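User: I'm curious what two different proteins look like when written out as structure tokens. Can you demonstrate?

Assistant: Sure. I'll show them one after the other, since each token string lines up with its own sequence. Here's the first protein:
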Amino acid sequence: MTLTNKITPAVKKTWLYLLSAISWSAIGLYLTSLTFDWLALVSWFSVVWRVGLGILLALAIFRFGFTSFAQSNITRIREKPLEKMCIFGFQKWSSYPLVAVMISLGIFMRKYSPIPKPLLAIIYIGIGGALLFSSYWYYNLLYDMWKARKTVASR
């Protein structure tokens, strides 16, 4: 066993799926929760149309963006011949710079953007909602795995 194998935090693939599901959900909930204070600044009618636009944006991002990311991550993990993988392997290594850029852009937009927070809420609801919706693919896979194990155990 090499030194790299000894120090790599490896877990079973099931844990990678669970980590993905929880992290996508948590980040989605976090981003959408940031908008509560921002939307408190506007009228009820304004909240309704901003949330509505945010949900439409979330559905579009879910359908045309994050679903393919989630499905490709699931397929990549499933096709690895290893029983255990690095805990950070729940997404491609090449995706981590993109995540860093997205986090940096999010922080910049919250702190320094000239866009008013109530309008920024639409984008945050869109991205946060899409992450939350896309976590469905991981939860669905975990449920299918649990159901398959339960069926095998009952035989």
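Here's a second, unrelated protein for contrast:
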Amino acid sequence: MHPMGNPRDHFWLTIGMSKAVGANLGDALRDGKLTQRSYAEIINACRTCDNPQGCKHWLDQNPSATAAPDYCRNKTELAALASS
């Protein structure tokens, strides 16, 4: 297991990925679809990714997508939030 990534960097990667797939984390938090704890868990899941540079590249190439890449630690959660 490698060390977790920088919280700030992964916060912005998570925000970018959520926007790319059409999931608004702020709205989900406000509407009760996401708790503060689950929001933090999403960020921490991103922090365990061993490919943040690949994620940055993917986001540059896919500003709007139907789904996060398969390697995304939050693919399932973001898909659920995008469809709700």
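A detail about the second structure: The chain has five helices and no strands.
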